[in-house]
UniProtKB/TrEMBL annotation:
This is mRNA export factor GLE1. Keywords: Coiled coil, mRNA transport, Nuclear pore complex, Nucleus, Protein transport, Translocation, Transport. PANTHER family: GLE-1-RELATED, MRNA EXPORT FACTOR GLE1. GO terms for molecular function: inositol hexakisphosphate binding; phospholipid binding; translation initiation factor binding. The keyword Acetylation does not apply. The keyword Transcription does not apply. GO terms for cellular component: cytoplasm; nuclear pore cytoplasmic filaments. InterPro entries: GLE1, GLE1-like_sf. Residues 296-341 are annotated as: Disordered. One of its GO terms (biological process) is protein transport. It is found in: Nucleus, Nuclear pore complex.
């Protein structure tokens, strides 16, 4: 008798089959039934009778169930029981229905029918099916949990992979930035090298031009010497003729002189008597003038209104020094006015310092010439290097530091005598007067070099005094008795002569401005950790000596204006109200005297001084005073 078995659940739910193994064969069912029978200690209920065909064919296989002999309550005969043999029936499970709900009513309706028909087998099969369903569900849960775990691990892997990709992107960006910075740095270095090559080329061209100029000058000098020799011969011939004529004249004049000598002797005796009386009168007048001047000076110092020396720094020692210097300059100036004809206008101390510096410079140059004469060694390479370093000075910190170190190394080189190196340095710096930016940078270089080579400062200031007398400060007054002509006077105050012609006043004033700018920048230079031996104190002394001794004219006005524009800012920061008093004296005395001259060419400098004082330009830092930190090419890299 065949049994139709159906699962009490749908075959699939939302695409998931109830049977995890759709190719379940008959051997697997037998194994499960045998294991169940062994647990119950009963003979096996099912045995394999017909082998299944292809195991891969889904739900098309049948199996044979052998039932043991048992008695029924029907009216079957005993013969039929003895002869009964069940060969087996084939049951096809092609349409198996599996339900997720174990309490389905349709499944419950089938159970009594099966139990009524076959009780024990159906119960065993039901138990087996139930256990199998539980195992399938557990396996499905395990697979689902495994899939979830695998999905989570895949998510974690993908997240970590994305993080690694992001890190790689960031590292790549950093690498690109570094490569870009290196590329820009290489470009900047190439640009600097290119600029250096251009500078070198310009230097070579300038050297070639200098050599040409020297050769041309030597050729012209040779021509001049030849002309001079020819002219000298002509002069000698003329001189021989003139000597003959003069001898004849001398003989005649000698007779006349003898006659005049007798008459002059009488006149001389009368003149000596008159001169003695005049000298006595001059001594009395000079004594009275000195006494009057001392009285006026003591009154002005006591009142503190008319003398510049009273307006000094707040330290008592400096004030006493300036007052004493003022009185000394006044007394010495009175004596010199009688002895030198009122030619020089300067403080006695300033003239002494100038003389000492010029004497030292003269000794250095004499020693230099002697060394060059006695030695066959050529020192022109050292001179070229010093000149090149000075020409290459610019307004950046790195440039100033590198040029100062290079110059210090040259000055301290044992292979080059100190007199030659420092003398060349002083000459080149004194001739290097350009824009205010270069002037401030030169001031820094001079202070740095002087801190390591102290002799440089006095020699450099001596060169300044030779090039511009107002750096002393000193002024020379024109006097017909002291100078043969106006040209001699101009030469004495610093005018240059070229081919027998004196330069114009405009050119002279341009050079005067440049020298005063360089001197003012040197005075106001302050470097932390380094002492400027010719700093603000010397600048204040210069200002006091200038206002005490020098008259108000075009030259002194230009010198004062340029000095204030360069050093006024630093002097005000140091001396505050005392510097304001100095400016008041300039406004009330110097400018008033300058306007009273009523000469042409004064208006520009008067306007500059008035604007500087009234607009308070000393509160503004002059352009170029603070050095730049780096070159423009390097600043582009940083930006």
């Amino acid at each position: 008798m065949g049994l139709k078995l159906e699962l009490r659940c749908p075959q699939s739910v939302e695409g998931v089959a109830a049977d995890p193994d759709p190719d379940w064969n008959f051997d697997d069912i037998l194994k499960e039934l045998n294991s169940l029978e062994m647990k119950l200690d009963k003979p096996p209920l099912l045995s394999k009778s017909i082998p299944c065909g292809n195991s891969n064919v889904r739900r098309t296989r049948s199996f044979v169930m052998h039932a043991p002999e048992f008695k029924t309550e029907s009216s079957e005969s005993e013969d039929e029981e003895e002869n009964y043999q069940l060969d087996g029936k084939r049951y096809n499970f092609d349409e198996i229905y599996l339900s997720d709900d174990s309490d389905n009513e349709s499944a419950l309706d089938v159970q009594p029918y099966l139990m009524d028909e076959v009780g024990l087998e159906e119960d065993a099969f039901y138990e087996l099916k139930h256990e199998y369903q539980l195992a399938v569900k557990e396996e499905i849960r395990n697979q689902i949990s495994a899939l979830e775990a695998k999905l989570m691990s895949e998510n974690e892997k993908s997240t970590s992979a994305l993080a690694r990709i992001e890190k790689y992107k960031q590292a790549r960006r950093e690498m690109d930035k570094k490569l870009d910075a290196q590329y820009q740095r290489r470009i900047a270095e190439a640009l600097d090298n290119h600029l250096t090559a251009i500078q070198r080329d310009r230097e070579l061209r300038s050297q070639i031009e200098e050599r040409k100029i020297r050769s041309d000058a030597a050729y012209e000098e040779a021509r001049r010497k030849e002309k001079a020799m020819q002219e000298e011969k002509i002069r000698q011939e003329k001189a021989m003729q003139e000597e003959k004529l003069q001898q004849q004249k001398v003989m005649q004049e000698e007779k006349l002189r003898q006659e005049k000598a007798k008459a002059d002797a009488k006149v001389k005796l009368k003149a000596e008597e008159a001169e003695g009386a005049a000298i006595e009168i001059e001594r009395r007048v000079a004594t009275e003038a000195v006494e009057r001047e001392a009285t006026v000076t003591s009154r002005s110092v006591a009142s503190g209104k008319t003398q510049v020396e009273a307006v000094g720094p707040q330290t008592d020692a400096t004030s006493r020094t300036l007052r004493a210097e003022s009185l000394e300059s006044r007394s010495n100036g009175t004596n010199k006015s009688h002895s030198e004809g009122d030619v020089y206008r300067a403080s006695a101390n300033a003239l002494d310092v100038e003389h000492r510096r010029l004497q030292k410079l003269k000794e250095i140059y004499e020693r230099d010439q002697q060394l060059r004469f006695n030695s066959n060694k050529d020192y022109t390479s050292y001179e070229r290097n010093i000149s090149r370093f000075i020409r290459q000075i610019s307004g950046t910190k790195d440039n100033v530091r590198s040029k100062a170190i290079g110059l210090i190394n040259i000055l301290n080189d044992p292979h080059c005598p100190r007199s030659i190196s420092i003398g060349t340095f002083a000459k080149k710096v004194a001739s290097h007067c350009a824009s205010p930016h270069t002037a401030f940078a030169c001031g820094y270089v001079i202070v740095l070099v002087a801190s390591q080579v102290p002799d440089v400062m006095d020699l450099l200031l001596a060169e300044f005094h030779r090039a511009c007398i107002y750096t002393v400060p000193k002024h020379i007054v024109y006097s017909e008795s002291a100078f043969k002509s106006k040209e001699d006077y101009y030469k004495s105050i610093g005018y240059r002569e070229d081919d027998g012609k004196i330069e114009s006043s405009e050119d002279y004033l341009k050079r005067l401005k440049s020298y005063m700018k360089l001197y003012g920048s040197l005075v106001q230079t302050e470097i932390s950790g380094i002492q400027n031996v010719h700093g603000l104190k010397e600048g204040w002394t210069w200002l006091a000596r200038f206002l005490n001794a020098l008259p108000a004219n075009r030259y002194t006005a230009v010198a004062l204006s340029e000095f204030l524009q360069m050093a006024g800012f630093a002097l005000f920061r140091r001396y505050k109200s005392q510097f304001r008093k100095i400016l008041n004296i300039i406004s009330q005395n110097f400018l008033v005297a300058l306007k009273a001259r009523e000469e042409s060419g004064f208006q520009d400098v008067i306007v500059e001084l008035q604007s500087y004082i009234e607009d308070k330009k000393f509160l503004q830092e002059p352009e170029g005073r603070s050095l730049q930190s780096s070159l423009l090419s390097r600043e582009r890299i940083v930006n």
